[in-house]
Design goal:
Number of domains: 2
Oligomer: single chain
Strand content: 5-15%
Distance between the termini: 31 Å
Strand order of the largest sheet: 1-2
Largest sheet: 2 strands, parallel
Order of helices and strands: HEHEHHH
Radius of gyration: 17 Å
Number of strands: 2
Length: 124
Amino acid sequence: MSLTGGNRNDVTQLLPLLDKIPAVAGVVGRPRRRPDMLFADRGYDHDKYRRLLRQRGIRPAIAERGQPHGTGLGTFRWVVERTISWLHGFRRLRIRWERRDDIHEAFLGIAVCLITHRHVQRLC
């Protein structure tokens, strides 16, 4: 995970984020290191990033500016917004108070463990 300042533009971190995707084990063969498709909102709508994604073998599904809504990307975005909302349920993560990024990432890991534990308890 890469930790950046809160005032950075998201699109500048798109390619470094894709480079940090870990290998995903599954079927027999070489582990996958990149997704087939990338869903993104209008903030990522630029030909440069579409071209760079295609060069990496990733099909971009990026909403276009000036076009009416209804592409279906909102169904995937809700999952992200909901997860961020769950993380903001932990006061310490709403605003980053720690100066050291390793401590902040440790609190983030603890929050993810607690959220997962709560959901597993509901299933049992």
